[in-house]
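hey all, quick one before standup. I had two proteins in the batch that finished overnight and I want to keep them in one place so we stop losing track of which output belongs to which input. First protein below, input sequence then structure tokens straight from the run.
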Amino acid sequence: MKILEVASEAFPFCKTGGLADVTGALSRFFAGADGISEMVLFLPKYRNVGGGAFSFKAVPGSYVVPVSGRLEKASLYQAQWGKVTVYFVENQKYFDRPGLYRGPRGDYDDNDERFIFFSRAVLEGAKFLGFKPDIIHCNDWQTGLIPAYLKTLYMIDAFFAKTKTVFTIHNIAYQGMFGQDTFIKAGFNWMDFTPDKLEFYGGLNYMKAAIIFADFITTVSPTYSLEIQSGADFGKGLEGVLKSRSEKLFGILNGIDTEIWDPATDTFIYRGYDYRSFWRGKPHCKKSFQKELGLKEDKNSILAGCVSRLDWQKGIDLIVDASWDFTDKMQFVFLGVGEASITEALKNLAQKNPGRVAFINSFDEEMAHKIYASCDLFLMPSRFEPCGLSQMIAMRYGTLPIVNATGGLRDTVFYDQDNLNGSNGFSIPFPSVDNLKSILGRAISIHSSKELWNAMVRNAMKGDYSWTKSAQEYLRLFRLLKGR
């Protein structure tokens, strides 16, 4: 079976968020899986792709891609990443820019055209290479037109006669919605501009196009697959379309790269440990971290951490409001960038509580590892969370998460106040300041019982957060499609 993985980003080549981690990890897993004869990954060739860490080889020749009634030139670069062959689509007009999707003034005005070009460049690029995929696995709205193209403009193309598509929704809040002029740029037939196909409130919605035309749709946790069909709060306007295709929709929980996120071998942290030795390793990490950040050095004080994009979805505003009542009882460290109002609130919290609160206004990979290893609690009360990786990383490092019971957080963090010996973290039933204060108080109380706390930590650390089970679920769907 030949698989073509396609995304707008993938770690370690280009990354803005969790999408890159997932596509990178899945690509590596697929490439080594039984029954996969060939695995290729297609990405845009952004300006700083790979950061100079990889050797790129130009594929001889070029080809043309129809966009907005004209032909644009595309060329390919190739890199070998273990068993994964990676192809980068080059077009300087579209991809030679400082950011992947946005610049200093916001989203690029031509993002619609950039990913029309990329989608068709992937299909034409496969033909250019002679790579005939059995499955094209598409990720998020930037690749959403590919399933639609295969079922419309490429329907009679013999090269793709046996190709099936799987589309994964990583976050339905980002759909790729554009006006009617984008439909014209994309080159579709007006017969397909109907509500049951490509039309969406007078325009073109890339994610809807994929949901309608993909052979299978997946999303990144079982609970989220149900939530996005339940109503507009979660479905963001696509709940009806998703319900109409519910028999083809599957929730597959994400995993994490357990080689990168391993407290026993992590070179970023102060001392390695595992579930048998965390009671020595974590206190050492915490004391060293407190010293580095200028927090009061106290191994007995609870240290709560947060590594996050700073926005409303993540519930960071709730954490700030709740924290004021606990700065005399515990310590806090925040790492992230995002909304200006939340950034200012965190700066104010840290300034008013020296030695108790630290705020690092950046994304720093080493600092993130140190937070996961050094903290006792990890704060993640997201208002919605398709899957979430941070809570799984935190648990792997023995840092108990506090989450809102939604999406993948519900599927991974288990809190039973009547059976703490079987719990691996804490959860609240609804994201509110009062609920967060209540669970923080509960955590402080439980922390005083080392036996109970350590039992929860062991539960967290012994959980299986690897990609093995999840990737096998994807492969099961791929094999099901190929057998049709």
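OK second protein, same deal, sequence then tokens:
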Amino acid sequence: MKYIVVLGDGMADYAVNEFDGKTILDVANKPNMDYMASNGELGMVKTVADGMKPGSDVANLSVMGYDTAKCYSGRSPLEAASIGVTLKDTDVTFRTNLVTLSDEENYEDKTMVDYSAGEITTEEARELMKAINDELHDDIVTFYAGVSYRHLLVWDKGSTNVKLTPPHDISDKKITGHLPCGDGADKLLEMMKKSVEILKDHPVNKKRIVEGKRPATSIWPWGEGTKPQLEKFSDKFGKSAGVISAVDLIKGIAILADMKSVDVDGANGNFDTNYKGKADACFDLLTKENKDFVYLHLEGPDECGHRGEADNKKYAVEMIDEKVIGYLRNRLEKEGIDYKMLVLPDHPTPISLKTHVSDPVPYIIYNSVKETKNDRIYCEKTAKETGIYIDKGYELMSHFLND
């Protein structure tokens, strides 16, 4: 038996005005998800524990079977692992976005125009982060370039006693009231303000403006954390495992849990990612490398949710259904390989809110050799109607892997 998790990041939703009050999962053409929902287990799971923020870090750790109350030490340390930064026990890390702010002279008066600086490329971002580090690093603070707009700040002997706001939570909002508070807040804000001067005349930004693209006008630190410790997935569940994702966060979890992380050409963490390439990589991990378990993460629905793009989010769900789930079903069945597949979001990212919420999410568990007919499609409403509810999200993985 092979085990596959297809994680559509943020694909659960609330009623969407563009779709006459239906959710994305209601209206998307997703015959494979619907078939598995009508021939498998359909239910709801709470992936974000009480008292935790509904981030993809907490939610994905939970789906992978880790009790975040015991193992979670922050988002940015997971991303540090992905980009190869070795942390000391005294280090505090911060996810550092390159963002686009409005152009008011006073920093506090600016608005969060784009938390991703127009989906800036990794190559462009690397040049900008080098300039930031050259100017701002000192004996205790260092910046590291990551992927696209997602980067890292490491502060030796820093503090996590600080209140920071994820930039995707304040899209189109004034940043005043969302600036750093707590230990080290003055230094963080000083670096944010200095970054404006460093970035405004950088050749990369000048070129982006000429090309009609949004420039990266500031850094934005958030997601503070400390060096994490995760039990190996193979020790915890007795399965050899691989992970496929375009996102540093998920890759970092894979590395820390000793799961093989695979990069896929053209995988970009958006709705136009290389779906087939990811599905092929999943199949290869299961067959050529004989892994027992693959966690296949697709970020597209979440990014569309943050940008309020209903049609693109629907498209992303449909591509996951066709080019990932449908493709894998056909290949596995053609090869006569028995499998179980778990399909779910990590959390909802409602179009109407443009940010994460901690509501429970609908899940499917489909067993290719043990179909269970129930005549339901896959959406939030029908999953609730089953009455199946897993309150502790980290228990879902054991439930899924139990034959």
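Flagging for whoever picks this up: The first strand starts at residue 2 and ends at 8. Residues 82-226 form one domain.
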